[in-house]
Amino acid sequence: MATSATAIEEAVETNIPARMDRLPWSRWHWLIVAGLGITWILDGLEVTIVGALASVLTEKGTLSLTESQIGFAATLYLLGGILGALFFGYLTDRLGRKRLFMITLGLYLVSTVLTAFSWSFWSFVAFRFLTGAGIGGEYAAINSAIDELIPARVRGWADLAINGSWWIGTAIGAASTLVLLNPSLLSHSIGWRLCFGLGAFLGLAILMVRRILPESPRWLMTHGKMEEAERVVKSIEAEVAGEGGVEKLPKAEGSIKIQQRGSIGFGRIADVMWNKYRKRASLGMALMISQAFMYNAIFFTYALVLSQFYKVPSGSVGLYILPFALGNFLGPLTIGRLFDTIGRRAMIAITYTISGLLLAATAFLFAQGALTATTQTIAWSVIFFFASASASSAYLTVSEVFPMEMRAMAIAFFYAIGTAAGGLFAPWLFGILIGTHDKNILSLGYYAGAALMLMAAGAEIFIGVAAERKPLEEVAEPLSVASPA
Question: What values do phi and psi take at 252, rounded to 5?
């Protein structure tokens, strides 16, 4: 069924969502994955570089930072992410997915280059704040576009795999530090600056790819741009059919009647979220806060733990991050398909529970002095094999359980809440705990992270949403659906 009208004031019946969901997987979808998934790679690169640089940046030949200043810089990066997500998330729902994922990547590129030229503590944290704002804005625009362009039957796996690509950035960052922070090849005064330049290089390359990606047809159809939405879908269908060498694609089942009602304000968003979808909002908060605390607390200070408690040289930190990154990447990639087959509720609860229990066990062993740098890394790798899938599923949940017109803002809101409540002060707090040089005190922070993960698992069991293999419009009806006459 084709679009029957284009006037914003009239109800318009369309089968665009069904046509997008029935498309067979193709090279076009891989292009979407590559062009949009770079967001997570860049964030993983940024976090890893700063983590690996932690001890280097305390040297007199660099910025001469203290451990608490490094933790504060990480906190400012996260604060930038929070504010950037809220600001750009609002604009993403109003102005479109494509426009914003170009703007936010541009902000990241400029800011990370400026970070490479930092001359003091305050210039460093200012540029880190702006870098975080770019990455935070990317989260809202990118996750919205991914969900709306990927077929429903593989949406869970695709989301988890893309979010798990964060650890590709981590591996790249870790590997680069082995060269750029090797004093026999480069002095630390130069090497740390080149580390940040690497992120700008990757971002500039992917900027070219993003220029050819389309606007989300689902966003277009809910904003009165039905003719443009129809053109985009026809173009996608022709490309996918051409790749498969088929004359006729599978039939699209079902249609939806849309009546565009103008921009959605904050009041309307709050009303829908906390009245109609209160349980889903509570679930999103539980999942996001717990994973944000666990990740930001542990990973932002990982290099400090290795250097302070295991005496690992700064130039060798990357060797320990690489297997850690591998475990994190393989988790969503290998078990991600189970989120589409076994289901969201079961798999989210299982991964959160396993992560929490393993973290508590590792905290106990750490406090007892039973671990070495190698066994600590093995323990983290096993824990985060599951924790990476659970963290990615948190983003998947908040991006698919709310109406289309507020999707980017919902992602931004829960990212902001999760990061503010669970992760904003975690790096700074753990920096203080590490500064005590007491394993027993630091282990208390790990126990807190484990408790949060287990509570989130309980929330998923009782109020989780079975969204697997369902069209987005079935999971959460768009606000612009025309009311019956």
Answer: -85, 125
What average pLDDT does the segment 68-89 reach? 86
Measured from the Cβ of residue 262, the count of other Cβ atoms closer than 10 Å reads 9
258 has pLDDT over 70 = yes
Q: What is the mean pLDDT of residues 59-88?
A: 84
User: How many degrees, rounded to 5, is the angle at CA 82 between CA 81 and CA 86?
Assistant: 110
Q: Tell me, what amino acid is at 370?
A: A
Residue 200: closest CA among 119, 114, 98, 99: 114
Compute the residue count for the chain: 485
- Alpha-carbon distance 412 to 137, whole Å? 8
CB count in 10 Å sphere of residue 244:
14
- pTM (predicted TM-score): 0.84
Burial classification of residue 451, based on how many CB atoms lie within 10 Å of its CB (0-12 exposed, 13-18 middle, 19 or more buried):
middle
What's the confidence (pLDDT) of residue 485? 44
pLDDT in tens, 435-480: 888 999 999 999 999 999 999 999 999 999 999 999 999 999 888 8
Q: What pLDDT band is residue 262 in, cutting at 50, 70 and 90?
A: low
Return the structure tokens found at 473: 């419009």
Q: Which are the contacts of 351, defined by CB distance < 8 A and separation ≥ 6?
A: 331, 335, 386, 387, 389, 390, 393
Residue 403 tokens, joined: 């109406």
pLDDT at 7: 41
CA dist 275 and 268 (Å) reads 10
First-to-last CA distance in the chain?
21
